Amino acid sequence: MLSAGPTPQISTEVWNFSVTTETGEVRRWNWAELNALSVERTTVDLHCVTKWSKLATTWEGVSLDTLLDGVETSAEYAVASSYGGYTTNLPLEDLLDGKAWIAVRYDGEPLTPEHGGPARLLVPHLYLWKSAKWVRGIRLLNDDEPGFWESVGYHNYGDPWREQRYWGD
Ligand SMILES: Nc1nc2c(c(=O)[nH]1)N[C@H]1C(S)=C(S)[C@@H](COP(=O)(O)O)O[C@H]1N2
Ligand SMILES: [Mo]
Fold first, then answer.
1. 5: pLDDT confidence band, cut at 50, 70 and 90?
2. Which residues form the Oxidoreductase molybdopterin-binding domain (predicted)?
């Protein structure tokens, strides 16, 4: 299970990323603004729900801690949405404390469109369907809202260590 739908081709000239709080406050970064933030390098293991894992992958991206710094919110949930319409939900705390990035490079190279370029969410401690490719924004919510796969039977949280693949796992 890799991608639902065709690969969007988003040029960095039009790309932007936004955070929208539960009160409707919006923060937005264009490509240059995102890349001007502190870009971290991280080496992580990835786990796909169809049982493959890929160990020690190296990414560069902006931590969600950086992007959410100073954002006033009491929301507990988040939904990431992508160019092309994909969505995936997760608790806000799973985006914080060095656990998630807006990744712009893989293995030292810009992310290819197939792998979510210009930028994708990277949340390596959850199953890879949570790592939204072609990410365009994150909404912070008081109430949880299932995303694309979560609303058709995938596990709402998706912890690979507890093998949370489907509802009821
Ligand atoms: N926008 C979007 N992001 C997505 C998906 C998708 O269909 N659309 N599929 C997810 C799933 S199921 C997997 S396994 C990974 C695949 O990432 P890759 O193509 O870089 O290997 O992307 C995730 N992110
Ligand atoms: Mo997947």
1. confident
2. 5-149
